[in-house]
Amino acid sequence: MIELNAVTKSYCRGADEVAALQSTTLTIGGNDFTAIVGPSGSGKSTMLCMIGGMLAPTSGQINVDGESLYDQSVAQRCQFRNERVGFVFQSFNLVPWLTAVENVQLPLSIRGTSAKEQRQRAESLLARFGLETRLQHRPSELSAGQQQRVALARTLVTNPQLILADEPTGNLDPDSRDLVLQTFAELHADGRAVVLVTHDHNVSTAAQRVLRIEEGQVCEQSLGESDVAA
Ligand SMILES: Nc1ncnc2c1ncn2[C@@H]1O[C@H](COP(=O)(O)OP(=O)(O)OP(=O)(O)O)[C@@H](O)[C@H]1O
Ligand SMILES: [Mg+2]
């Protein structure tokens, strides 16, 4: 379970200060499927990065299973990220000099999984996302939608308990998007927590719960609200 208690985030650039997230208190259950929606620049990625242990709040507390994430040591927070969180970055963050299959293998390689198992798991996930003929391509040799699916495969290869995905379908055609959504639904049915940021109404309607952020203010949006419906 993730709890945000009066969490705020301001970015400072010289004398300028941007209030990216205003005081936010909410709870995300260990098996919730939550969508975060809102205009560009409203604070969605900021909130996701803070939940993922990658960005400390300016004030307030983020608890994961009762433990304050940012009161832990850096090593403990890294362990949390490595063992429990799968993060899909808005900008993919693939390693440019590694092939698609090597990118997906990477988190398993860091964990010391055998080379054979790394390869099998990576290939099977890439095949699931329709990329079996692109295993040896480097990111620069893949389309944006293909890179997005490689990034998703890399996120899922370690079987994370908490999946945080920033616009995971932004570059996908409707068929690939439905495949990715089906994958998230299966992960949720399997007892995992999924939090995804999206601009796509089809994606947010797949979630059980929608949080809307506007100018750093978060509010719960009822699932029936017309601007969320497909
Ligand atoms: N490192 C930074 N330094 C200064 N300001 C920042 C920084 N990162 C983000 N911001 C500002 O914080 C606000 C929230 O940014 P954030 O990336 O969370 O928005 P977002 O909702 O994810 O937008 P988008 O839908 O375009 O991805 C924006 O106004 C942005 O300009
Ligand atoms: Mg963003």
The CATH topology assignment is: Rossmann fold
Q: Major beta sheet, specifics? A: 6 strands, mixed
Give the beta-strand count: 10
Give the C-alpha Rg: 18 Å
CATH architecture: 3-Layer(aba) Sandwich
Molecular shape = globular
Low-confidence stretches: 226-230
Q: What are the secondary-structure elements, in order, as H or E? A: EEEHEEHEHHHEHEHEE
What share of residues are in beta strands?
A: 25-35%
CATH superfamily: P-loop containing nucleotide triphosphate hydrolases
Q: For the residues shown, what is the average pLDDT?
A: 91
Question: Which percent range fits the helix content?
Answer: 25-40%
Count of helical stretches: 7
N- to C-terminal separation? Answer: 29 Å
Main-sheet strand order equals 6-7-8-3-9-10
Our count of domains comes out at 1
Give every kind of bound small molecule, once each.
adenosine-5'-triphosphate, magnesium ion
Report on this model:
- This protein is α/β, with parallel strands linked by helices.
- The protein has a single domain (30-57, 73-221), classed as P-loop containing nucleotide triphosphate hydrolases (Rossmann fold), CATH 3.40.50.
- The chain has helices spanning 44-51, 74-84, 100-110, 115-128, 144-156, 174-189, 201-204, and strands spanning 2-13, 16-28, 33-37, 59-64, 67-68, 85-88, 162-166, 193-197, 209-214, 217-221.
- The strands form 2 sheets. Strands 6-7-8-3-9-10 form a 6-stranded mixed β-sheet, with helices on both faces.
- Strand 1 and strand 2 form a beta hairpin.
- Helix 3 (100-110) packs across helix 4 and helix 3 runs parallel beside helix 5 (144-156).
- The longest helix has 16 residues, at 174-189.
- The chain is globular and about 45 Å long.
- The model is unreliable at 226-230 (pLDDT under 50).
- Adenosine-5'-triphosphate is lined by residues 11, 13, 18, 20, 38, 40-46, 90.
